[in-house]
Amino acid sequence: MRRLLALSSLLLLLSLLLAWWQASRAPQPVALTPVLTGETEYCLTCHADLPEISPSHPVDVFGCVICHGGERLALDPDLAHSTLRGGANPSDLSVVEASCGGGNCHSGSEAAGRDHIQRVMTSVQSTYTGAIASIRFTFGAQPDLQAYLGIRAVTDEQTQTGIVSLQAFDPAAETHPMIQKFGENCLTCHLWAEPRPGQAYARSTGCAACHSPLLHLPSGEGWGEGKIHTLTTAIPYTQCNTCHNRGNYNLRTMTFDERSDQPTTRLQDYYQPIAQFVRCEWTLDCVDCHTRTEAMGDGDLHPDQASIQYVQCKTCHGTPTELPRTKTLTDPEDLAFKLAFLNPVIDLKLGDTILVTETGEPLWNIRLIPSPAGGGAGGEGILFEMYGKATRQYFTFRPVMGSGCTQSGEDQSSSYCHQCHAVERHAHP
Amino acid sequence: MPTLSRRDFLKLLTNGLLTLSGLLGLGAILRFLGYVPETRPRSEFDLGPADRYPVGSRTPILSIPALLIHDESGFRALSLVCTHLGCTVEQQAEGFACPCHGSRFDADGNVTHGPAGAPLRSLRVEVNEAGNVIVYLE
């Protein structure tokens, strides 16, 4: 009996020592109770060094779990991360509704301006439908260039374009080998897809593909490991280039030909497929001219990129007979103020006159400079100022009207404007 | 020199183990019983003597966070928690502005610019028998 007691005692002692040893190894938890959830989480025990993701998502208000998921009270890394949404990227489109869309933050009605996720899901950046239709039509798999298939099945019950739904494109179900190769080799530049291997293509999926730009190493060494904890609307052209400027699709072999050059200047780096550039094409960032609707979609399914991308040279510069469209800000709730608040490169005020696109989208970073003499109806004396959204660079420009430009206002193709305004660059080595 | 027999040694070892286990077990029980759960957030704030806040003063109290206002009608307090998502608003010349999503409020806490849809919350203020200003969150 006494021997049994001693053995039990020894086992109890060993158990207590083991428990003490394990407790001594566990980190001292750092508790955070975010305002929005009111539920304590221990994520900062290990992640206190992460920068706050954006001024609109302060960690003391949002915490981590509301976006990332995970086991909020676990101190063991494997257990804490076991239920993360989308791994390290909660904006991956497979989980975005639960993370970014949670609490109706970025998911909801168009009227309330909360339909970000719906817009992205139906955008050509997600559906890739134009490319799919083009290839399938070329190789006889469909009778016309209509949009039938997208990367994933998607519906638009309030369609304005006539396209109500897209079925999911399944390369394995295709019979033509070139379409199968297209499926294997040419589907890495949409928001559902992991990028191609290589630093030049490095980006995240989902919202983070654009809104979490990778860190650029200043020494010209290219893109580093790069992923930083940030969300921004100040998106540099280099982020767009992770898809749009890294090579060309070879339609003969249905493969992707990577760029072989090593661009060292901005002019060499910018948009490789065309050979000529006007100053704004290689000085500005893509988001300085192209709008949120063009990039993120308008909530409707579109058959291809051309049907959603509409900003042209004349949108900002006008034509010899027409000034660009403007709007004087009289409503403090105007979308322009909201966008300028998120990326405060310009101090917009009520009464300011900004440029707007043909569909009325605000080009909120471009403002009419009030002229003491007033702008003439012929365009003389009119001057606009512009702030780079990513670079904060300051520019001024005059409208075409009243200048010496003899263009036809109807022709807005890039090659037409390039005939006079192009900056030649040296050929790639 | 007395020698310890094998029996005595084992007996001593057993007793020692039992004593040590008992002490450790007791310590574990005491630790368990002494566990203090996370305290609830404070709902009552003693801001000290009322005469620290003269008539006409508007004093931000960041620990709440709230703005204590002392005017001719007495003490009152405005919560500085934005009614949109809960960020702490900042005092400006014309009122308050939320640094997170741009909501603005006038000097009385009324919304002048969304996305917030409700005014800043008024908090109950009392001066207790000791002459201290007490602000209540609930």
Describe this structure in words.
The complex is a heterodimer of chains A (429) and B (138). Chain A is of the alpha+beta class and 429 residues long. Chain A has 18 helices and 10 strands. A 5-stranded antiparallel sheet of chain A has the order 6-7-8-9-10. Chain A starts with a helix and ends in an 8-residue tail after the last helix. Chain B has 138 residues and is an alpha+beta fold. In chain B, strands 1-10-9-4-3-2 form a 6-stranded antiparallel sheet, with no helix packed on it. In chain B, strands 5-6-7-8 form a 4-stranded antiparallel sheet, with no helix packed on it. Chain B is elongated and about 90 Å long. The N and C termini of chain B lie far apart (76 Å). The model of chain B has no long low-confidence stretch (mean pLDDT 89). Chains A and B meet through α1 and α17 of A and α1 of B.
Tell me the fraction of residues in β-strands of chain B, as a range. Answer: 25-35%
Q: What is the rounded distance between the termini of chain A?
A: 90 Å
In whole angstroms, the N-to-C terminal distance of chain B is: 76 Å
| Lateral strand order in the biggest sheet of chain B | 1-10-9-4-3-2
The backbone outline of chain A, from C-alpha atoms, is globular
Spatial order of strands in the largest sheet of chain A: 6-7-8-9-10
**Low-confidence runs of chain A (pLDDT<50, min 5 residues)?**
218-224
Strand % of chain A is 5-15%
Structural class of chain B: alpha+beta
Q: H/E series of chain A, N to C? A: HHHHHHHHEEEHHHEEHHHHHEHEEEEH
Largest sheet of chain A: 5 strands, antiparallel
Structural class by helix and strand composition of chain A? alpha+beta
Interface with most residues: A-B, 25 and 22 residues
The beta-strand count of chain A equals 10
Could you estimate the helical fraction of the residues of chain B in percent? 10-25%
Report on the biggest sheet of chain B. Answer: 6 strands, antiparallel
Shape of chain B: elongated
Helix content of chain A: 25-40%
